[in-house]
Amino acid sequence: TLITNSEKQRLSLELKQRQENSKASDVAKKMQSFREKLPAFKERSRFLKAVAENQVLVVSGETGCGKTTQLPQFILEEEISCLRGADCSIICTQPRRISAISVAARVSSERGENLGGTVGYQIRLEAKRSSETRLLFCTTGVLLRQLVQEPELTGVSHLLVDEIHERGINEDFLLIILRDLLPRRPDLRLILMSATINADLFSKYFGNAPTIHIPGFTFPVSELFLEDVLEKSCYIMKSESNYYQGNSRRRRQQESRKDPLSELFEDVDIETHYKNYSTSTRHSLEAWSASQLDLNLVEATIEYICRHEGDGAILVFLTGWDDISKLIDKVKVNNFLGDRGKFLVLPLHGSLPTINQREIFDRPPPNKRKIVLATNIAESSITVDDVVYVIDCGKAKEASYDALNKLACLLPSWISKASAHQRRGRAGRVQPGVCYRLYPKITYDAMLEYQLPEILRTPLQELSLHIKSLQLGTVGSFLAKALQPPDPLSVQNAIELLKTIGALDDMEELTPLGRHLCTLPMDPSIGKMLLMGAIFQCINPALTIAAALAHRDPFVLPLNRKEIADAAKKSFAGDSCSDHIALLKAFEGYKNAKQNGKERAFCWENFLSPVTLQMMEDMRMNFLDLLSDIGFVDKSRNASAYNQYSNDLEMVCAILCAGLYPNVVQCKRRGKGTAFYTKEVGKVDIHPSSVNAGIHHFPLPYLVYGEKVKTNGILVRDSTNISDYALLMFGGNLIPSKSGDGIEMLEGYIHFSAPKSVIDLIKKLRGELDKLLKR
Ligand code: ADP
Ligand code: MG
């Protein structure tokens, strides 16, 4: 909207007046004194001067020094005070949804304002912003999507890209775009913010842009490795020459008689731990990274601290939600230290609802110890101030991608030294701290300096689709400009996949389907499943399965009651030979139970996670909104209009095939059983957690699957048995076979020789489907 200069002046004056008023409030004054103690405050004028004088600026500083909350705020205050408020639009990107929200909330409260006024946030499908908003915190993904409409970022005056040291795929992608954009937008200011890691790399990438370092203040944090932790627990005496061998079991028994404390560690198989760890080399490190974390050891360490160390919050780094929830359960069952009332145990995980936030930051009530169980989200983006003790398990879930086998995994792996350093730094913000590392020094020495950037570790299809929708040229040449360009084979795989699923044509241009997939912020296969679900009127199952694939499946695997849990899952599957149908039925059961207020019991009896199911419900709603935005669902119509075939399991399986293709396994009879083959890796097996594990003969000749994982061999995790007709209709492009009479699918190993009449019919149906997608 055009506004006149005089209106602008009036608006700028008004903003300034309002800023001064809210700053005068008592709350804001108290906040101001907190802010002035942050290391960033001392750099305020140097920072503002550098922003004014340079188009690109790199700022590094220890986590907690005030980069995220202060730097965008300094710019905002300055612009408003200098009566440029009407013209300023500051965007600060965050890699994670949870940090975008919590930082926006923090900054608006520091300014004594309501969230959604001058300061707002926007994350996928959720926003608090208004026409007043001058400083917007958003996820990097949201900004990337905004670029489709606004390739020049018109109207944005300052862009701050946060946490670039994490080298997330979105941030690396954004940096390529911005480097190309800057010459065309000389008035745009770009500020890159990073923890104290490798800031030079980014400065170089932007033609030696100036850097500012914010020196931190932290109290010293002492560091204990596994050997020291064990020693503290009185198992192993330092005076003994060799920790690793010998009759440590006997020694342990003697020790335990000496010290009642060692009871704490009695569940921990320390010898195995220790032997494994201490013979480590980089090679064997990789082998163990897949092995389970010993939660007993974590628990014992927490107990040790509670009994022997002074006050102060404990921050525990675990690998993911599984560990967090298991540890919470353990702590509950064991009636932690005999007095649950003394502890405030809080999970901190990227996908948790935001209501739990305040407690994480607030000081606990007197006589209560705060114990935060976190993933690596607490490593650099969220600062819990009062942490005195850090327990570092040394691992994080890490995505990896094997381009040769087209194999993507998300497994716990050893962190880098840089991460280990970050984790340690979380203690000692208010007083000297201690970091307990649950691995030996020798393991630490074998860790990589830095983690590989995500762009080198993940499949590139979603990114490639995005590059096409932003019209940035060919994917290969665009990505060659990245800070660390990905392997050309990964690029080729992504393009091939997008062609196979029909999102790109032979010229590598977007098809109508591809264009729709670009607008859906999710993996293209999940997007395709949703579109097909809408078109073929089985939207409810498509939404449910897509939500589980995009998030996680709701089945929990209790270690001690695995068989009963497996049986529960199998009973949901019935005779469908499908993990996806099992999931669908479980979700339907949950919804029914919920109507009677009995969902907790239902989840408990059937080994389902209520948190995941709730998350799936939310995601389903979001997905439905997205489909309605692009006109595939009309929400004013009755839901039954989109659910004509929702109870038709054959149809649902066909839709699954449409989404999951080319993740296909061929089932071949071999003697009494069945052997399974995929095109890329040859023989595979069914994951033991699948309802299809142990089935000797399948009624239909193929399985489609969500993901394959590598352990000893290669396993497909969740699969559904489908017919060759589903493949014929929804699989890849049809190409004539050599003999000329039948048809062969694009995937070389799937041979159909269907009669010409069938093929002609399929071609007509496919043609009609393409027309539907062109709207
Ligand atoms: P950095 O980005 O440099 O890591 P931040 O700007 O995130 O630092 O944090 C600066 C300080 O503000 C920290 O001491 C942190 O504890 C505090 N802080 C940040 N967010 C919140 C919040 N939501 N509630 C309370 N304190 C917060
Ligand atoms: Mg930060």
From TrEMBL:
Q: What is its EC number?
A: 3.6.4.13
According to the record, the segments passing through the membrane are none
One of the record's GO molecular function terms: RNA helicase activity
KW Nucleotide-binding (keyword) present: yes
The reaction(s) catalysed by this protein are:
ATP + H2O = ADP + phosphate + H(+)
Keywords attached to this entry: ATP-binding, Helicase, Hydrolase, Nucleotide-binding, RNA-binding, Signal
Every copy of the Helicase ATP-binding domain together lies at: 48-215
Q: What is this protein called?
A: RNA helicase
Q: Which organism is it from?
A: Cephalotus follicularis (Albany pitcher plant)
